[in-house]
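[AMINO ACID CHAIN]
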Amino acid sequence: MMEGDEQILAVDWGATSVKSALVSVGGRVLSPLKRRRTPHPCSPETFVEVVRRRVESTGASRVGVGFPGEMREGRVVGTGNLARVGGPGTPLIPELVERWRGRDLSRELSAETGVEVRVINDAALAALGCGGGYGVELIVTLGTGCGLAVMVNGELQPAPDVGTHPTPDGRNFDEALGERSRAKDEVRWRDDVRRALEGWRSVYG
């Protein structure tokens, strides 16, 4: 297979839905977007199985997965909303948090599928796709919750899972900047987004 013909499976594992499509090496979309609801609570085994089935059904030769939690050196540090009983806004399951901690999902999925798989934080993955490659860049993702990535001259820098961090009014950033808050009161949501960006810029800019 020529490099230009290679099909890469791109997976965006979000708090409420899992989206995937085949793309070329150059980023051209090659297939319709597939979408399914995110299972909750979600164990590491469920995560691996869902991605494995998708790889098998597409015949992709490589896979990139955006993970909705904090990762360090390829291992899971924080689970985001995956270890919650029913998704965002529901209680965490401590035992499931521990089962996630330290998992090398790239290695596990590569072993399960027989193809090269890379799993990184979803905001970091977005940054790699849209970063300009120079200066200090702050990339913020907004959806069900929020994520943050920092790049300096095109290189990813360590960044926390800001979605779980508390806000001054007693919420966390996932709650304050997520889609539910936007749908409830967009004026307040816009103000909250502006204040969050100003705060993060003062820290990372």
Observations:
- Residues 186-204 form the longest helix (19 residues).
- Strands lie at 8-13, 17-23, 34-37, 62-67, 71-72, 75-76, 116-121, 136-142, 146-152, 155-157.
- The chain has two domains: 3-125, 131-204.
